Amino acid sequence: MAGHANRGARGCGGGVYASAPHTECLEMLCKHEFEKGHFVRVESEQRALAVCMGFAFGGARTFTAAFGGRLSYLADNARAAASARLPIVMMAGNGTLGMRDSGWMQFHFEDSQEVFDATLLAFRLAEDARVQLPAMVCRDTSVFSHTLMQAAIPDQEAVDAFLPQLDLPRVAPGHTQVDRQQLAEAMARVPAVYREAQDEFERAFGRRPPAAVVPYRLEDAEIALVSMGPTGATAREAVDRAREAGIKAGSLRVCLFRPFPADELETLLAGKRLAVLDRDFSPGMGGVLWSEIRSCVSADLVQGYVIGGDVRPKHLMQIIDRTLGLERSGAPEFVEVP
Question: Is the Cβ–Cβ distance between 53 and 80 less than 8 Å?
């Protein structure tokens, strides 16, 4: 749909390397007929992103997908795309937090509807002249690859109205320090432009995408579960059960990971006990989200939990009880559910 919406300008295109769990998505994309543009089958993720860069330099709307460890194959090109300010959108699976310093925006969402909406939002945001940065729409493939979810798909006319035809100004890569400053300034403008895009998306499609952070029953909470992606739904159920048991619990889901919403997190979480739930792990440090939260939130206690497997509300209830009993934060704890 995003590709069709640019048919009056320079069309769309990209490189694709079909590997699980994106195989079906990319095969369908290659078979689709566009009025202007096409997708090129290549032999690696690095080449796929290189093809996207070529299309973007030519002014086309571009898309690809990559997953997990295969993201490392395109790391060099990812940094080059950010430095050149190319508004490429990539559907990305597990492993994206290892790319957090690449200069790409990162969006993490909970279900298929949010991921679909976020893809349209990502094009709108990436191509805005105030931003002009590549974007990753991140999904937890351990969940999305094993579930079917309904999603409302708008008609092409509505997408045409939401996504203006791309008129991409050229940004020539310059000195490294200049690139860094420009990237920092562009990232700093993302939150305000994202809020504008939320408003426009709601007017166009009748539903509002999630904010950069999504709080749940936090107002009087003494302890909060902090998470990203589908874990947020499990956390809300655990919060409801904790409330029924008389525990003042809340939760917060981080949807925008880059740029990191530090000010909003400090406002919402300051003074609370935090149990940060990570499915990503940085050896020698701990959970990735936990390390980011610790750097910007003046909470009463910030305890990290690296979770794995089929984590249910009952397991998060145990984490709530464990965190309430701590006198001080300790090393990250591992919670692996068979």
Answer: yes
